[in-house]
Protein: Tripartite tricarboxylate transporter substrate binding protein
Amino acid sequence: MPPAGHGRRAVLALAGGALAAPALAQGKFPDRPIRLIVPWPPGGSADAQLRSMAELAARTLGQPVLVENRPGASGTLGAQFLTTQARPDGYTLGQMHMSIIRRPFIVRTPPWDPVADFTHIIGLCGWMYGIVVKADGPIKSWADYLAHARAHPGRLTYATSGIATTNHLAMEEIAAREGIELVHVPYRAANESAVAVASGEVMSVADASSWAPLVEGGQLRVICVWTAERSPRFPDAPTLRELGYDMVITSPYGISGPKGMDPGVVRVLHDAFKAALMDPANAAVRTQFDMPLEYYDTADYRQFIARRADYEQAMARKLNLRID
Structure:
């Protein structure tokens, strides 16, 4: 005969095990469509890459993955929805990117904790950034760029797609290392800034590769790229590492959900999105938009977000960045 209380302890143990079991044990996930929030207008590189992934992942999941565009607020409306309205059931997800990680450190009232207030699922890819000048201008190389900045303090202008973006912070860091004074000219979008350089409104652009068609068309010249290796598309452009900076800047992004998601659900989503990411069809989209692969599994992506949050907080303090 078991000792007194043994049966009660057994029942409690079984109940605890049931509570701890993944939601998958109560029913198949997913059993209805999944919503994936893309916080940019349709037609851009991230939108195209994530739409491709959604279509491919749906085949594995057996349910549609519906892309919902929510542009505005520097790409943070998706994060706002995840932290205030979405349930942590795996049916509402969103793109996680650098502006979401950075925002709590550059506003007066932080809207979320980028580490604790989300369930980070998978890291996907980034962008190819570079510095581009007018093809028929006086600057032909990175050495020329630095020389011009030193000869004309506060006169060399560079465009980006916004204040406190990844590329803006990178240029601030480079300028500080070199002891040069550059003038930042933010535009609403990367393609607008590339056109501004071609028309002579500004002297350079430091942004993702929306400038590529104008380089290939002969209007612009790329003097460096910020990827780990030279771009196959622009093999003559050196990387920042080759120029003496231990910097690789691709602004990688991934997919996250509301905090508190079931680990079993996260595993299913990670595996489906990883298969989609590695599919040749998605690789073709990334190649089209010069998007380097930046895959992180769930555990590594959480660690990446935590490290990046520390970096963004330090940079915000160093540069005294505030947008409100």
Observations:
- Confidence is low (pLDDT under 50) at residues 1-25.
